[in-house]
Amino acid sequence: MTDDVMIDLQQVSKSYRGQKAPAVENVSMRIHRGEIVVLVGPSGCGKTTTMKMINRLIEPTGGRILVDGADVTALDATELRRRIGYVIQQVGLFPHMSVATNVGLVPKMLGWDRRRIEDRVDELLDLVGLDPAQYRHRLPRQLSGGQQQRVGVARALAADPPVMLMDEPFGATDPLTREKLQNEFLRLQEKLQKTIVFVTHDFDEAIKMGSRIAVLGERSRIRQFDTPEHLLANPADETVARFIGAGASLKQLNLRKVEAVDQEDAELVRLDESPASVLNRLETSGEWAVLTTDAERRPQRWITPSDLTPRHDNLDGVGIAATTVEPQTTLHDALDAMLGSSCGSAVVVDEAGRYRGIVSIESLMKAISDMREAERNHNRAVADIVPAPVVPAARTDGDRTVNGVQVPLDGGGPR
Ligand SMILES: Nc1ncnc2c1ncn2[C@@H]1O[C@H](COP(=O)(O)OP(=O)(O)OP(=O)(O)O)[C@@H](O)[C@H]1O
């Protein structure tokens, strides 16, 4: 095993008592340090069982699982919990315990002293965007669904585990909150570089979150294990193609994020500027609209000349609300946001909601057409390099059987 491999599933199987067929059969998979591997597949195919065997919430009935070179069956439970954080859809916060107690559970189990636990809890709440002073003492029911989910992530990170298992972590939230949580998590992951196994039903989420995606079939058999780009461009077989679903090219929009698009600058005005001065600015700048921001430079509304009349003595509520996106927002979601707003642009904001720039529908369309052009060139280059096979190749049905022997799927490292 190379140093680069963090989780190594070797011919892993699970047969539940009383079930004729195994839920998971002979799965081999290598997951590299720092990558997010997403498991997707039809309901009941064994995604959760596969994942839960990694932290031994479910005991395998065959095969071996190594985490950072150590066989998990040889580790004691406390050691395993320190190494592997776990986030689930239902969050699993204890309802009668405060946020701080919930987040501090694992450090407490590990015997940390009170002061160190308190400091860690505050640090983690900060990290997931919850002000410790405001949320530390709340009970889970006094939080929104999205906030509970953030606490769940903080709790999983408490002992700074190198590995995180996430089972539909954002599944129970509405689409907007979900998008926000995904963005926050990707931002966090840039800093933390954890090795993550992520289960989801949502293929768009898999494309957005995954360094690589494992498309699983019955009994967790790996049909294809590849980067989102390759998976979309070259589904291994009909089943994978069907699973990806219609509009694979549209789904490519989930691959690119707003940060990759050229940004422009807007003419900014403070909310406390006088309408007369704003009109003057609109005339002299030649812009079709100005963008109001609050004292923290958080964008508020677009104002065009026709929005301002002599009866306005301040800018409160004037113009149309600005649509905002984050650098991590996918082009798919950005396009959605723009189409849903009445102006053909979105304001890019940082994690604190402060202004960073503007993406217009034109620059978005240009990024999309550049992307398609690059892909066409790539496909042409590949077609030039790869000669047509003369001898029929060994059958590879996604789990890469070579002469009947399953070999670990190990193509490509972390992106
Ligand atoms: N405790 C159990 N006892 C017996 N069978 C089980 C048990 N848990 C899961 N199974 C079965 O094992 C198979 C795989 O279940 P698993 O929950 O891993 O699938 P999944 O892909 O995560 O499903 P979903 O997407 O619906 O959550 C299913 O057929 C399920 O009915």
UniProtKB/TrEMBL annotation:
It comes from the Bacteria. SMART domains: AAA, CBS. Residues 7-244 form the ABC transporter domain. InterPro entries: AAA+_ATPase, ABC_transporter-like_ATP-bd, ABC_transporter-like_CS, CBS_dom, CBS_dom_sf, Gly-betaine_transp_ATP-bd, P-loop_NTPase. Residues 394-415 are annotated as: Disordered. Pfam families: ABC_tran, CBS. Residues 318-375 form the CBS domain. GO terms for molecular function: ATP binding. SUPFAM superfamilies: CBS-domain pair (SSF54631), P-loop containing nucleoside triphosphate hydrolases (SSF52540). Belongs to the ABC transporter superfamily. NCBIfam families: proV (TIGR01186). This is Betaine/proline/choline family ABC transporter ATP-binding protein. It comes from Micromonospora zhanjiangensis. The lineage of its organism: Bacteria, Bacillati, Actinomycetota, Actinomycetes, Micromonosporales.
